[in-house]
Write a structure and sequence with these properties.
This protein is mostly beta strands. The chain contains one helix and eight strands. It folds into two domains: 28 residues, no CATH class; 92 residues, Immunoglobulin-like, CATH 2.60.40.
C-alpha cells in the first residue's frame, strides 16, 4: 500500500493503518464452524456423541459444555480428550425424548472467550 503523506491525506493514511493493526483482534474469537448434533437437528434417543469444531485453537481446560435438559435443568458435560486443537467433544448419558440445548463456552488460544448454543431435539 502506498500512501502519499501530503498534509490533507495524513488522517486518512493513519486511519487506514490503525484499521489494519486493529483488524486482527476483530477476527480472533473462536467461531463454531461445525457441530454434532447440528442446530435444530432431530436425533434418536440414547447416548449422544457431541463434537464442536471451531475456526481456531481452543483451550479445552478453560472451556465448558453444558446440556440444558427439557425441564430446564443444566448438566455440565465431561469433555473427552481433544482429537485436535480446534475440537471439543463429550458423550451424554441416555437422552429421553424432548428439546435440548447444548451451551458452550470456549477460550480461544489468544485469550478471547466465545459463547453459543446449539438447540436440538431427541425423538
Amino acid at each position: 500500500m502506498t500512501c502519499v503523506l501530503r498534509r490533507g491525506n495524513r488522517p486518512v493514511c493513519l486511519g487506514f493503518l490503525l484499521l489494519l493493526i486493529c483488524a486482527r483482534p476483530l477476527f480472533a474469537h473462536a467461531v463454531l464452524v461445525r457441530s454434532t448434533p447440528k442446530a435444530h437437528e432431530i436425533v434418536a434417543s440414547g447416548e449422544l456423541n457431541i463434537e464442536l469444531q471451531f475456526n481456531s485453537r481452543i483451550d479445552a481446560a478453560r472451556s465448558s459444555l453444558t446440556l440444558v435438559l427439557p425441564d430446564g435443568q443444566a448438566k455440565d458435560l465431561t469433555q473427552l480428550p481433544q482429537p485436535s486443537p480446534a475440537v471439543l467433544g463429550a458423550k451424554t448419558a441416555r437422552l429421553a425424548t424432548g428439546s435440548y440445548v447444548l451451551r458452550w463456552q470456549v477460550l480461544a488460544h489468544d485469550g478471547h472467550i466465545t459463547r453459543g448454543e446449539v438447540p436440538f431435539d431427541v425423538k
